[in-house]
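HUMAN: Forgive my ignorance: could you write out one protein's sequence and backbone structure tokens?

ASSISTANT:
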Amino acid sequence: MFSFSGDFTVDLWVQFENTDRSVILAAQNDDFPHGGILLEANRRNGNDQPGHIQFSISQEYQISSMLFKDNGDAYNFNDGRFHHVAMVRRGSTIYLWIDGLLHSSLNCPIQTVVRPGQMFFMGAAPGSLNTRGYMSSVGIYNYALDDAEIRMRNAYSLIYRIQGTVTLEGNPYQATVRAYNHRTGQLTREVLSDINSGDYQFTLYDNSHIDLMVMNKQDQNIRYRVYGPITPALYEDLP
């Protein structure tokens, strides 16, 4: 039997265009502090903020979307596009994932949710806090999906790709191509270019800026090159 008192994951795809506070999904106790789950649009850290998303497990504990991307651009989720949102509890920690990225987490007490009230989708009571948009593919699990599973659920349709060709003195060349996060320096991907064409490609879960390093692990006489920052390109891979 499903319960919000233990580990859980609720994920969905949502598109909204309104700029006022509204409910995307809610399943809460009727009594204060209204334990359960509440996902709101145009809300951040307990305040109205257009373009953001807030996940609450009660009146006392909530987490929200980040303000800025790695490249410095502001996040804005009321852009008329579909976004994947996952709300997760694992033990005493709750997580908010949006479009395959962990936006926020918070340690909070295990709550007892005896009996959530009605479930609300794209609004609260009739005529109250309505969300103007669409929702699809709602998933409810009585366990916490791991990071890779959440990323894969997002990546089934929206994938970012880097591709190119390695050459040496004008000829195709097989080399190791590494991608590092431009901001953190973390290694995110490593692939080998094709021995005949020199071509390579790999997919990423977001369009954060990366730096590319091209090198030959076997031949230390071949110098490496670094390129960046580079922005991955978005492409569709619909099921």
Remarks:
- Helices lie at 147-155.
